[in-house]
Amino acid sequence: MLELKDISKSYGEHMVLDDLNLSIEKGSITSFIGANGAGKSTLLSIIARLIRQNEGDIYIEGEDIAKIKDKDMAKRLSFLKQSNFINIKLTIRELVAFGRFPHSRGRLSKEDNGAIDEALDFLALADIQHKYLDQISGGQRQRAFIAMVVAQNTDYILLDEPLNNLDMKHSVQIMKVLKSLSNDMGKTIILVMHDINFASCYSDNIVALRDGKIVKCGKTGDIIERACLKEIFDMDFDVHDINDCKFCVYFQ
Known about the structure:
alpha/beta
């Protein structure tokens, strides 16, 4: 379990996160939703230790993450930022191989190469694995970065807007991969999501933030309700049940 206790973050007088308390279920997919500026990406970055909170503590399996060594943390938790840019010439396979560094320390073993192959297959990149990153589309590049995280093989996976630059087909593919990682391999996956319908169809739990506070938190079916979404986003939704999933209509 991942536990956040009394987490606050401010920049000067601007409060970004205000006294958050949260427990994230192990082996589940949890999506952070909310309007721009709600604090979702900041919270994810704090969990990943890229940003230091002003107050509060975070625990993985009861252990304070502030006391875990970097090399050990990289074997337990992986993180993919919203925007990723590498200014060196790499093939897809070479990028994915970076995900094995916490295990291999730069000397790839048979086990490491097996994990790389599996990640490439998961993300349907095996056929183009020797292409350079500057030769492929933005969607293919995004899938390559996600494959790198999959190859890292951590129990906790944090993804900030993983569907960026992906078309509908590959967005569904990515979410099915994440669902498989959670259901079949017991991975705990935490996402920042803007697409409310993808969050609804693939998340076990949803955490809704507004103005740096958690306004709703619970099972997906309890959060994807008209009145609840109105409170989160301050706009009207129609919610329809289709094939055991709740779909939101908000274009009217």
